[in-house]
Amino acid sequence: MFSSPLKKVLAILILAFLALYIDLPKKIPVKFSAGGMNINKNLVRGDINITTERLTIKKNFDLVLGLDLAGGSHLVFEADTSKLSLDRKKEAIDSVRDVIERRVNLFGVTEPTVQTSSFAGSQRIIVELPGIKDVGGAISVIGKTAQLTFAELGDENDQGIFPTELTGANLESARVEYDQNTSKPVVGIKFDEEGAKKFEDLTEKNVGKPLAIILDTEIVSAPIVQEKISGGSAVISGNFTIEGAKNLAIQLNAGALPVSIKLVEERTVGATLGQDSVQRSIRAGCAGLLMVLLFMVLIYGKMGFIADIALIIFGLMTLALYKIIPVTLTLPGIAGFLLSVGMAVDSNILIFERFKEEIQRRPFGDALEVSFGRAWDSIRDANIATLFTAFVLANPFDWKFLHTSGPVRGFAITLALGIGISLFTGIVVSRNLLRVLIRESEGV
């Protein structure tokens, strides 16, 4: 399909324009005044919103900023480990941290920081949520114990509540559903094999009687059992809003907290760098990029100009990828991007320096192809070594002996993405642009 260099260049340009469209801000103000014509309106970039019976895709392509650039919520919880022995305290705290981390991830927060701390003999969990300004909503999702229990209710003579062996420990999954009769949101739950058998026996025993569903210490629903229910599925109904049902499903899916926790500190964090510092960083980055572009043109002439075009395409594609994934952009993440810009330029420099040697003993077209081929080994080895470094810093398997800091991982992720795109632009984009623009101008 893309056999000729010209077709490849056209495909690259289409890809670059798509990336540019994604990179544009949500609203672009347009103001124009000439003669009797006045235009003052906002051009709005469209989002992806596809909804079918089986598939829902929504994407707004907004750039997600980290805690140091955009602010967010800072929460500190204290765990009650007074009833635990010393050898079990660390295990309990690690378990609390893991549960909170799962809840935060299900909540939709990107690049959160969840870490433990010991303060004056008490065990604390520090949670930082970039972009989350609703502290109360975050606390309601993170801090609840979410202990799910099914209980039998007594009759008129004995009005007690009798918990059964069926609990949240038997839960396999929970998700938001909608009642077919009332269209109100409910939480559908599914039990594992053991829980399904317990639920079947429980419903068979209580046909015609209420069965209480208790979350923590509150009865959220007490439906009348109409018949024995097989298959291990049930529904938690109540006066749920869509957000409330979603939060309950998050808590149930993430698991119950092994020990109770209480909130000891909460605050909304402003951007630590400040708007002025961010603007200065952008200006400094643009100045540095312009110097690199000018350097390439002065040293390598027309070939350097082609490399500059490839570098601009690299920037457009990288920013678009940050929005599509999305990647939470922090100051270390910006540093990772700038480092990958240097790697992208390095590829072209290796190729062009090789070209200077090859042009002395072979025709232009052959020298160009040989330069790319022979420089590839050096480019590949250098980038693979950097990718290994990024892998260690990202620590995707959560190895305890490596760093697990969110900002460090952000640096590693932006660096790895930048290297991957730089390989594409440095080899594929630059090569085909040179084939079409330089070789044709040289009459090759």
From TrEMBL:
Pfam families listed in its UniProt record: SecD_1st (PF21760), SecD_SecF_C (PF02355), SecDF_P1_head (PF22599)
Gene3D superfamilies linked to this entry: 3.30.1360.200, 3.30.70.3400
Chief location of this protein within or outside the cell: membrane
Domain SecDF P1 head subdomain stretches: 165-259
GO cellular component: plasma membrane
UniProt GO MF annotations: protein-transporting ATPase activity
Topology in membrane: Multi-pass membrane protein
Transmembrane among keywords: yes
Domain Protein export membrane protein SecD/SecF C-terminal: 260-438
Membrane-spanning segments: 408-429
A biological-process GO annotation: protein targeting
Subcellular location: Cell membrane
Domain Protein translocase subunit SecDF P1: 94-152
Keywords attached to this entry: Cell membrane, Membrane, Protein transport, Translocation, Transmembrane, Transmembrane helix, Transport
Role description: Part of the Sec protein translocase complex. Interacts with the SecYEG preprotein conducting channel. SecDF uses the proton motive force (PMF) to complete protein translocation after the ATP-dependent function of SecA.
Complex formation: Forms a complex with SecF. Part of the essential Sec protein translocation apparatus which comprises SecA, SecYEG and auxiliary proteins SecDF. Other proteins may also be involved.
Family in the record: Belongs to the SecD/SecF family. SecD subfamily.
Protein name per UniProt: Protein translocase subunit SecD
Taxonomic lineage: Bacteria, Candidatus Woeseibacteriota
Name of the gene this protein is made from: secD
